[in-house]
Structures are given as structure tokens and as C-alpha cells.
Write a structure and sequence with these properties.
Layout lengths: L1 H8 L3 E8 L19 H16 L6 E5 L2 H14 L5 E4 L7 H9 L7 E6 L3 H9 L12 E7 L11 E7 L10 H14 L2
Parallel strand pairs: 1-4, 2-3, 2-4
Antiparallel strand pairs: 1-5, 5-6
Helix pairs in contact: 2-3, 4-5
């Protein structure tokens, strides 16, 4: 009975967008994992995903990001593209943590915020998506976004299987089919064009 009454009053829908950082740059073998940036392909992928979010009018109330360099770059590029004017909150806890830690962080967020971007790393983000949503996903690819909706009034109510997977996008969804041999030559041509 209580649930029916609250639905009639209009329960707030809250959404978490789990965003995996863009493809890492491994060109410097001496760089620590935390300091690795984003490779050229990763920057293109961020642009693709960020433009999709912008065209879909998806803007968060708050962005929480791992403090690792590749996550910071991903967060900043997405924020710039979608026109997010708020502060990006960089957290060491999102760099090397378990899903339970991120659930605790989410449960402490202001209930006035209905939409949160969490930019982080695998396998934690995929494990978190599978913990929170009723549906299972195999893996969030680099620059991928898993959007999970919750029929809750307060972030304190977030819990296992309490959400529904709204959508999942990743860069390969936006690539048209091209035979491998042609794509290889095309990629080489793009590299030559940037020299």
C-alpha cells in the first residue's frame, strides 16, 4: 500500500551513468598505471560518446571521477562536450575500489541530484553494473556507458538489483561496417593525414 501511494505522489527516478575511461596510452613503459593518459583512438571514442550524450540531452547533476589521469581526461572531455558547468569531483576511491565502496559513495550523495556520472575502471564498473541492475552485462568496454535507472526517492535506497539497465552504449556501436583490409588502409591514411 505504501508503495502505491508513493508512486501516485511521483517517486523520483534517479539515474547512474557508469562510464569507463577511454582507451589507455601504453606508449611510455615507465609510466605508472595511475599516470597513463589516453591514446589517440581513445580521444576519438570519447568525442563519439560525448556527442551521443549531448544529442540525447543527457547532462548529470554531478560527475564523480577516478583521479587516475585517463579517467580525468575522459571526464573533462565529456563535461566540455555536453556543456556541464558543475565541478568534477576526483576521488582516489574510484581508482582502485570494489563495487561496495562505490555503492557507499553513491548512497551519500545529495538527494536533490537525480543524475550522476561515475567515471572509473574495469572490472569494478562492470561488477557494479551487475550488482545494481536486474540485468547482467558481460563487460563495459573502454569509453562505454551503462545507464541504470532507480525508482527511489533517496540515494540511501540504492541496493543490489534495485535498478534497471536503461541503455548501454560504446564506440563500436557507432562504427559502420568496413572490411578489415579496407579499414587497415583507411586507418593508415588517417595517420598520414595527421602528420
Amino acid at each position: 500500500m505504501v508503495k502505491i501511494i508513493s508512486k501516485l505522489k511521483g517517486v523520483t527516478i534517479k539515474t547512474v551513468y557508469l562510464i569507463r575511461h577511454a582507451k589507455s596510452d601504453w606508449s611510455d613503459p615507465k609510466a605508472r598505471d595511475f599516470e597513463r593518459g589516453v591514446k589517440k583512438r581513445g580521444k576519438k571514442d570519447i568525442k563519439t560518446i560525448a556527442n551521443y550524450l549531448k544529442l540525447s540531452s543527457i547532462t548529470p547533476d554531478i560527475i564523480l571521477s577516478s583521479s587516475a589521469l585517463r579517467a580525468q581526461i575522459t571526464s573533462e572531455k565529456i563535461a566540455d562536450t555536453i556543456g556541464y558547468n558543475g565541478k568534477v569531483h576526483y576521488m582516489n576511491e574510484l581508482y582502485s575500489s570494489d563495487p561496495e565502496t562505490i555503492v557507499n559513495i553513491l548512497s551519500l550523495q545529495d538527494d536533490g541530484d537525480n543524475s550522476i556520472f561515475v567515471v572509473g575502471h574495469n572490472p569494478t564498473l562492470t561488477e557494479l553494473a551487475n550488482f545494481l541492475a536486474k540485468e547482467d552485462i558481460k563487460k563495459i568496454p573502454t569509453s562505454g556507458v551503462a545507464a541504470i535507472k532507480f525508482d527511489i526517492d533517496s540515494w540511501e535506497e540504492i541496493d543490489e538489483n534495485s535498478g534497471d539497465l536503461d541503455f548501454m552504449i560504446y564506440p563500436n556501436l557507432f562504427r559502420y561496417y568496413m572490411p578489415r583490409q579496407i579499414r587497415t588502409n583507411w586507418d593508415k591514411r588517417e595517420e598520414l593525414d595527421t602528420l
